[in-house]
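<purpose> Linking amino acid order to shape
<body> The protein record starts here
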Amino acid sequence: MKKIPVLFQLAIIVALFINCSNSKTMEISVTSTAFKNDSLIPARYTCDGTNVSPQLSWTNGPENTQSFALICDDPDAPSKTWVHWLVFNIPAETQSIAEGADSIAGAQYGKNDFGKHTTEAPARLRERIIIISSSTPSIACCH
């Protein structure tokens, strides 16, 4: 089986979700009980800590949302934007992830830049957490 680079997987997922989305754009707010927006992620949730995934919540997507994708990446990594999490086909009724969750029911995990189909803790640098809604319940991808 041919290996497909993580950024190419990410581009495919984003393109599919964008193409499946409503033409009306809508902002989805992401919050966490673990940290505030524009602040450092506490050490507990980083590679310097216990590699525990933080609690995350997000608002509803557009009316026709049938699934979500979640991306956590590090745009300040030395060689490229480093992908820590690549999760897609998250059911629309799922709007949060509990602290320490190992998986999201019904979701699929793409291979991250660690070469794993899991969530991996970020460093304590600037990390982006992106939620994308889709009007399709699932996509088949190269994971």
